[in-house]
Design goal:
Number of helices: 3
Strand order of the largest sheet: 1-2
Distance between the termini: 39 Å
Helix content: 40-55%
Number of strands: 2
Order of helices and strands: HEEHH
Shape: globular
Structural class: mainly alpha
Largest sheet: 2 strands, antiparallel
Number of domains: 1
Length: 69
C-alpha cells in the first residue's frame, strides 16, 4: 500500500474537522497498545478504544463483537 501524498493528507477530513494527518499508524498503534497493556485494560476495552480511534481517523464507526458474560 502506497503512502498518501501531502496533498492527499491536506484534503483529508475527519469527524473532528479538516486537518493534516501526518502519522505513522504502526507507531501510534504500538504506543496505544503499550499504554493499554500497562494500565491493565482487557481485550474488550482495547477493542473499544481502537474502534473509537478508527472512527476519529476514518469516520467509520464499528463496534467490536463483545462476548456475553
Amino acid at each position: 500500500m502506497e503512502k498518501p501524498s501531502d496533498s492527499d493528507l491536506l484534503e483529508t477530513c475527519t469527524p473532528g474537522g479538516k486537518r493534516v494527518l501526518q502519522f505513522d499508524a504502526t507507531k501510534i498503534s504500538n504506543d496505544i497498545l503499550r499504554i493499554l497493556m500497562a494500565k491493565g485494560f482487557t481485550v474488550e476495552e482495547m477493542e473499544l478504544v481502537f474502534s473509537l480511534t478508527r472512527y476519529r481517523v476514518t469516520g467509520t464507526l464499528t463496534f467490536p463483537k463483545l462476548e456475553k458474560i
